[in-house]
Amino acid sequence: MSRDEHEIRRLLEDGISQEVSAEDFDTHDLKRFVRSAVDGDSTVIIRDSDQLDAHDIRRIAEEGKGNVVFR
Question: From CA 2, how far away is CA 66, in angstroms rounded?
Answer without folding.
Answer: 24
